[in-house]
Amino acid sequence: MGLLVIKIWISSFLFPALIAAMMIGLKFVDTSNLHHHKERIFPLIGSMLFYIWLSVNMYLSGGTPDALLVLTLGATLALILGFVMNIAFPISFHALGMGVLVGATSLFYFFYGFTDFSLPGSPYIMGTEWLIVFSLLVSAWVLTARKWLCSYRLDQLYTSWILGILMPWIVLFNLTFIL
């Protein structure tokens, strides 16, 4: 399980962060803020490649728990759909990611029936309903921060967040036909 968590962290955070740093260093983008939605195209393509690679490997390995596979595929689908939408108008990828978190935690509770949650190796156990509340609070905090920084309009934030919530559920209902 620890190796799987490391693989997910490398593919979904470390490699995309390195790609963004390279883009800044090579002057493909001006700053790490990526204020203009057109500046995000190249970093998003790089991130999508790693997310797709991770999702395909997890799907083909056969040993990945269904809930984790749905989370990973949902995040990948959200990133791809967000990329396509970003070409036409700005969306908040922070809100999109928070939506995926809320969608996945609600899916874990309502569909998979996970009643308890704990981190690997941790003696502390939390009820999954508290994980949903925590993800909602973190989402509210992130969306408020994005609005407070005047980065996005409310409709852009809510559209991104709702899109993120829906993606794990859409993947789940489509995977039931594949698996």
Outline of this structure?
The chain has 179 residues and is mainly α. The protein has helices at residues 2-25, 41-61, 66-88, 93-110, 128-148, 154-178, and strands at 116-117, 126-127.
Structural notes for this entry:
This protein is mainly alpha-helical and 179 residues long. It has helices at residues 2-25, 41-61, 66-88, 93-110, 128-148, 154-178; strands at residues 116-117, 126-127. Strands 1-2 form a two-stranded antiparallel sheet. The protein is globular and about 45 Å long.
Give keywords.
mainly alpha, 2 strands, 6 helices, 179 residues, two-stranded antiparallel ribbon, 74% helix, globular
